[in-house]
Write a structure and sequence with these properties.
Layout: H1 2-19, H2 30-50, H3 61-76, H4 80-83, H5 85-93, H6 107-118, H7 121-134, H8 137-162, E1 165-166, E2 172-173, H9 176-186, H10 192-227, H11 232-247, H12 250-279, H13 284-297, H14 304-320, H15 326-331, H16 339-346, H17 348-367, E3 373-374, E4 379-380, H18 397-406, H19 412-443, H20 447-466, H21 470-511
Antiparallel strand pairs: 1-2, 3-4
Helix pairs in contact: 1-11, 2-21, 3-8, 3-14, 3-21, 5-16, 6-12, 6-17, 6-19, 7-14, 7-17, 7-18, 8-13, 8-14, 8-16, 8-17, 8-21, 9-10, 9-21, 10-11, 10-19, 10-20, 10-21, 11-19, 11-20, 12-17, 12-19, 13-14, 17-18, 19-20
C-alpha cells in the first residue's frame, strides 16, 4: 500500500515538474556515438545470428522456433488452452485458492505481473508496423500465433511452480533456471546447470536493456513530445525513484502495483478502441473481411500472403513472449500446491496480450482510413519504396496508431502518452523481478545481493532515458530471444513431466477430489 501511495505522489508531481522545465535542445553526443559504434562492433554478430532470416526468405528463424514449439505443445497437450479455458478463469477468480498454500502472490496478481511485462509498446507500435507492412491480413496470423502461444505459456509456467525453491521465510524463487537445473538432474540429463547459467545471463541482459532502458527511452520520447524537449536524465531519475520505491518491497509490492495498473491501462486502451469501433460500427464487417481476405491473398500488400503471415507471426512472438520463459519467473511466486493450476492461469496471457489488445489496435488502424486503399482495384496502395502500405501523412509505428485513434478521438494522443508511460513503467517493474531472480540464481540469495541488483537496475533506467544507445537495445532484444532458445530446448525434454501433472490434476478434478474454497 505504501508503494502505491509513493507511486501516486510521484506521478502527480511529475507533470508539474516536467512542464516547468525550459525547452532544452538535445543534440546527439559524441560519447553516445562512440559507445554505439564500439558496442555494435562486438555484439553485431550475436544480434545478427538471433534475428537471421531463414535462407531465401525474410522470416527470422527465431520466430519459426517459437511458433513450431507452440504448435508442438498445443498438439501434445491436446489443445489444453481451449479445454481448460473456463477452469483458468475460475482459478484467476480465486475459486480454488487455499490461503494456506506456499507462495507469495495470488493467481490474479501473478497473471497481472506477467502481463505487465508483456503488454507494452509492442501492442501499440509493433502492431502498427505489422499491419503497415503485412496489411490487415497480418492480424489473422497474429491471432493464430497468439492462440498457439497459450500452450507454450502453460508448459513453462507449470514447470516454474513445480521446480521452484521455497524458503523458510515464505519467499520463493523459480523460473527456467530452476526447472532446467533441477528438472534435468531429476531425469538424469546432462548440461542442466550450464543451460540454467546461460539462461540467467541472457535474462539479466534482457532485463537491463529491453525490459528497462528501451522502456525509459520511449517514455521520455512520449513525454518530451507533449511538454517540449528537455534532458532525458530528468525523466530517468523520476522513473528510477518511482520504480525503486516499488521494487524494493519485492514481488508482493510489485504485485500490489501491477494488479491495479494492468487492469487500469488495459481498460483505458481497450475502452478507447471500442469507442472508435462503435463510432465506425458500419465498417467493422468490412475490416474483418480485410483481415480474412488479406491473410490468404495479401491484398497486394508488400510481400503478399507470405508478407502478411511473417508480420503476423513476428508481432505475436515479439508481443506475448510465449516460450521465452520470462513469465514463468513471475508465475513461480504464486500461492498454490498444484503446479498445473498456474499453467492454466498463464495461458490467458497470450489471449489478453495478443488476441485481444493487439487485435484491437489492428482493427482501429484498419477502419480509421489511415492505410491508403484504392477502391477501384480493391487493393492497398504501396509507398514509393514498395516496402509498406502508404499511409495518410506518411506515419508508421506509434505515430500511425496515434493518428488512427485521433481520427475518432481528437484528444487520444494524450491518452496514448499516458498509456505508453504506464506500459513502460509496468514493464520495468516486472522485468526488474525477472532480472533479480536470474541475478540471485547466479550470485546467491540475500538482502545485499538483491539490493545490489535493484540499484544497478535503477541506474540503467537513467542511462536509458538519457542516451540513444541503439545497438545496446538491439543486443538486449537478441538476449531476450536467446532466452527462448535455451528455454524451449529444455521444455522439449521436460514436457512429459507437465503431462503427468495434467493427467493427475484433471482426473482428480473430474472425480471431485479438487474442490472450490469458500472465501
Amino acid at each position: 500500500m505504501k508503494s502505491m501511495k509513493t507511486l501516486t505522489k510521484a506521478f502527480v508531481a511529475a507533470p508539474a515538474l516536467l512542464t516547468a522545465l525550459p525547452a532544452v535542445a538535445q543534440e546527439a553526443m559524441t560519447l553516445d556515438q562512440k559507445v554505439n559504434e564500439t558496442f555494435a562492433t562486438f555484439t553485431g554478430p550475436f544480434v545478427n545470428l538471433i534475428f537471421a532470416p531463414l535462407p531465401g526468405t525474410s522470416f527470422p528463424w527465431i520466430v519459426l522456433w517459437l511458433v513450431v514449439a507452440a504448435s508442438v505443445f498445443t498438439i501434445y497437450f491436446a489443445f489444453v488452452q481451449f479445454r481448460f479455458f473456463g477452469h483458468a478463469i475460475s482459478l484467476v477468480k480465486g475459486d480454488y485458492s487455499d490461503p494456506n498454500d506456499a507462495g507469495e502472490v495470488s493467481h490474479f496478481q501473478a497473471l497481472a505481473t506477467a502481463l505487465s511485462g508483456t503488454v507494452g509498446l509492442g501492442n501499440i507500435a509493433g502492431v502498427a508496423v505489422a499491419v503497415g507492412i503485412g496489411g490487415p491480413g497480418a492480424t489473422f496470423w497474429m491471432i493464430l500465433a497468439g492462440l498457439l502461444g497459450m500452450a507454450s505459456k502453460f508448459t513453462e509456467c507449470t514447470l516454474g511452480v513445480k521446480y521452484r525453491n521455497e524458503y523458510p521465510d515464505g519467499t520463493v524463487s523459480g523460473g527456467p533456471m530452476y526447472y532446467i537445473s533441477k528438472g534435468f538432474a531429476e531425469r538424469g540429463l546432462p548440461g542442466g546447470k550450464a543451460l540454467a547459467i546461460l539462461f540467467s545471463i541472457f535474462c539479466i541482459l534482457g532485463a537491463l536493456g529491453g525490459g528497462n532502458m528501451f522502456q525509459a527511452n520511449q517514455a521520455h520520447a512520449q513525454i518530451s513530445g507533449i511538454v517540449g524537449d528537455y534532458p532525458g536524465w530528468i525523466t530517468g531519475i523520476i522513473f528510477a525513484a518511482v520504480v525503486f520505491a516499488v521494487i524494493v518491497g519485492g514481488i508482493k509490492s510489485i504485485a500490489n502495483v501491477t494488479e491495479k495498473v494492468v487492469p487500469f491501462m488495459g481498460i483505458l486502451y481497450v475502452g478507447a478502441a471500442l469507442i472508435i469501433l462503435l463510432v465506425n460500427y458500419d465498417k467493422i464487417g468490412w475490416a474483418f473481411g480485410q483481415i480474412f481476405a488479406g491473410a490468404f491473398t495479401g491484398l497486394g500488400v508488400a510481400g503478399g500472403f507470405v508478407g502478411a503471415l511473417i508480420q503476423g507471426f513476428k508481432r505475436a512472438a515479439f508481443s506475448n513472449e510465449a516460450g521465452v520463459g520470462s513469465a514463468a519467473i513471475a508465475h513461480s511466486a504464486v500461492k498454490t500446491k498444484e503446479p498445473i493450476t498456474e499453467g492454466f492461469v498463464s495461458l490467458l496471457e497470450p489471449l489478453i496480450d495478443t488476441v485481444v489488445i493487439c487485435t484491437m489496435t489492428a482493427l482501429v488502424i484498419t477502419i480509421s482510413g489511415q492505410l491508403i486503399f484504392d477502391e477501384a482495384t480493391g487493393l492497398y496502395v504501396l509507398n514509393e519504396a514498395g516496402s509498406a502500405i502508404a499511409t495518410e501523412g506518411g506515419t508508421s509505428g506509434v505515430a500511425l496508431t496515434s493518428a488512427a485513434f485521433a481520427s475518432g478521438i481528437s484528444w487520444f494522443p494524450y491518452v496514448l502518452a499516458v498509456a505508453v508511460i504506464l506500459f513502460a513503467f509496468s514493464t520495468m517493474i516486472s522485468w526488474s523481478y525477472y532480472g533479480l531472480k536470474a541475478w540471485t540464481y547466479l550470485f546467491g540469495e540475500g538482502k545485499m545481493s538483491e539490493l545490489t541488483f535493484k540499484i544497478i537496475f535503477c541506474i540503467f533506467i537513467v542511462i536509458g532515458a538519457a542516451a540513444s544507445l541503439g545497438p545496446v537495445i538491439d543486443f538486449s532484444d537478441a538476449a531476450i530471444f536467446a532466452m527462448a532458445v535455451v528455454n524451449i530446448t529444455a521444455l522439449y525434454f521436460l514436457m512429459s513431466v507437465v503431462r503427468k501433472e495434467l493427467n493427475s490434476y484433471s482426473s482428480r478434478l473430474a472425480s471431485g477430489q479438487i474442490v472450490k474454497f469458500k472465501h
